[in-house]
Please model this.
Amino acid sequence: ATLWVSDPWHNPAIAVIRNVSYKEIVLSAERIDSKNTHGTGCTLASAITACLAKGKDIVASVKEAKEFVG
Model:
């Protein structure tokens, strides 16, 4: 699967997941206005990995990780 995330200034914040059969799942959320964004990509990737390690599927993992990051 691949994950594409919109740029830091795009509102709403969009994440697109493309699975192995090329089906696209789009997740959208209101972007939080903050200048403290350094490291959020690494945190998002780590949270997704942790969810996958717990046995969650990719969509559930990305949703939970996006909630964790804020």
Q: What stands out?
A: The radius of gyration is 12 Å.
